[in-house]
Amino acid sequence: MKVTDSVSERRQFVVSCALVLCRRSDVAEQSFSQFIQRLELVFDDAVVNGDDDELFASGYLRGHFDLVVAQLELQQQHDPAAVLPGVREAVDETRHELSPADQQHIANMIARLEAAAV
Length: 118
Fold this sequence. Notes:
The chain has one domain (about 30-115). It is mainly α and about 120 residues long. The protein has helices spanning about 1-50, 50-75, 85-95, 100-115. It starts with a helix and ends with a helix. It contains four helices and no strands. The radius of gyration is 21 Å and the shape is elongated. Helix 1 (about 1-50) packs across helix 4 (about 100-115) and helix 2 crosses helix 4 (about 100-115). It comes from Pseudidiomarina insulisalsae.
């Protein structure tokens, strides 16, 4: 009888742990989603209120941003801290495509994203 109680207690413990991990995962996904939405507002603002240079930088970065977010979601990495470094890395890999002036516009937009990320 004692063995059954022990097995039952272990099973209950495992179920409890699984529920806690699921809740943490849900919170992480929600936090990640909220973070992404905050950054998307920066892009939206640039489209509505930005000049031509900001519109270009926003569009250029939005492509990299969407790709990084999609890759993180596929890997089930819901870590907001991974988004902007991923975007910066993608931009660095394609920096040769940009003129120095465009690089500055991109840097300014990244600074706006970083400010919104806080």
